[in-house]
Amino acid sequence: MKKTPPQQLHKPVLPTQTIAVLAPRSGENYLDLTAGYGGHAQVIIEKIGSAHLATLVDRDDYAIASLQALYKSSARIIKSDFATAVDNLMRADEQFDMILLDLGVSSPQLDNADRGFSIQRSGPLDMRMDQTGPQTAADLVNTWSEERLTQIIRDYGEEPKAHRIARAIIEARPLKTTNELAHVVQHALRGVRNKIHPATRTFQAIRIALNDEIGQLVHTLAILPQLLKPGGRVAIISFHSLEDRLVKQCFKEQSEAGFTAELQVLTKKPISGAIHDVHNLRARSAKLRAAVKIKTERAYHANSG
Ligand SMILES: C[S@@+](CC[C@H](N)C(=O)[O-])C[C@H]1O[C@@H](n2cnc3c(N)ncnc32)[C@H](O)[C@@H]1O
Question: Is 54 helix (H, G, I), strand (E, B) or coil?
């Protein structure tokens, strides 16, 4: 059977717009903090002219194996969560011309039932992006309190019936499979009709909490400017309103800080996947924001003053 090339397993979101804002030039270096199956990375590496200029980070073993197959020893490939990776790169005094964060999950993570992210295909309640992570979604749903479950389902799932769902989960414990969880949520929400599966928001909430996706982003946003060279560009694609708000707020703070401002915003409004990438289903909720690091003269002033 013909094998699907890894980069075709995941179709990159907003590729043209991402390249337009990052504006890669030959010889520049590139940090991809969510390299996945290398879809964006491949296009950027072509423009900068060498994979040796790329640092590719992901916390998923399958993504790392796929990147290693693609780039062997040419690109630097780091298996890590990106919050730890940016700490290490900062400590090593590294700086980049371009940084990309394409948040959320990849298509292979969603499509492979064994990973436990899928509502459609039953699998173990896992949902770990990093297969070596200490806790699975089953641990979370079977041990967390009603209050904690309600809070994440409300905050990360933006689910108005969070409390009803949390109570139903507690009553149905122990839950072992994605099918069981989907069924419990569907039953708890009977009468609530929607175009999407009724458990979609709950699955999203559990995934975000389990993988500490908001904590990872908040930590990384604060460090990003230090990892950019003067004139360096950062692009962030998010799929959740909470994430987009954090990115917007961070860019705003770091661009409106007067003399100490580090970034200049390149996207006044986010570039929307629903408008610009209509043939990619995963892009429906994507929002792309970008900024450039200001070429500051602060170093000169600090030395002279
Ligand atoms: C949307 S996919 C990226 C796809 C990639 N841009 C491409 O075109 O192939 C997101 C990837 O980021 C990884 N990821 C998400 N959060 C992460 C984190 N905090 N640290 C490291 N990797 C993360 C996931 O494992 C997944 O492979």
Answer: strand
